[in-house]
Description:
- This protein is an alpha/beta fold.
- The protein has helices at 48-64, 106-118, 156-165, 203-212, 221-225, 245-253, 264-267; strands at residues 21-24, 68-71, 88-91, 94-97, 122-124, 136-139, 144-149, 168-173, 186-188, 194-196, 217-218, 232-233, 237-241, 257-261, 278-279.
- Strand 3 and strand 4 (94-97) form a beta hairpin.
- It is globular and about 45 Å long.
Amino acid sequence: xxxxxxxxxxxxxxxxxxxxxxxxxxxxxxxxxxxxxxxxxxxxxxxxxxxxxxxxxxxxxxxxxxxxxxxxxxxxxxxxxxxxxxxxxxxxxxxxxxxxxxxxxxxxxxxxxxxxxxxxxxxxxxxxxxxxxxxxxxxxxxxxxxxxxxxxxxxxxxxxxxxxxxxxxxxxxxxxxxxxxxxxxxxxxxxxxxxxxxxxxxxxxxxxxxxxxxxxxxxxxxxxxxxxxxxxxxxxxxxxxxxxxxxxxxxxxxxxxxxxxxxxxxxxxxxxxxxxxxxxxx
Length: 282
């Protein structure tokens, strides 16, 4: 990893935030009723009222930072719908819809499609299994879509996304089941750079990330386990799980402003800040 560094060698440049539009879903029916990832424990109690309070604080954080927050209505029987990032992936105003791996979550895809169509937004129904922004993200600078596969998303969905958006897709293989979605192991910092946890990826994908992003912030095992990479950045301010103190320090050293939020209840379902937040890119 000699080409990487976890913090810059000199004082970081001033960073300018951009205004974002996010889609969120209130955790009205949130619970851990089944286990489809290693973080979910059906025997551990979930404080539903606290989960709602934490989620409301996250939404308020976005509006306080000057971002627009839109809402999709939660539906009974869909306890994971709070993880709104999984419902679609939006670039250039086009929503590439989700097709969930696990049957428990499949109805969420229809709920998101209805929302996009009712809002007059373009929506493309997928042929291949994918879980929206869980396994896709976009870097406007190089115009690259980064896409994960290995647990939830079929690699064929990457080619499908390339056709939908007419943009280059970089496929990255995930190998650690704890980091079952790309957004648990990698996140954009701004239009050009990322942070990621190298050990979550296959060796070839690590080498590819090393070449593409030599100045990336590297997360360690503690950062990743605290969902420190499941963050949302506007290019300057980074909304990050409060538990990820080490990751917040790395962000600060690199010139970003960490904005911690407590999502301990929602982490019990295997998600944090980013999982709760879909970005609607115009």
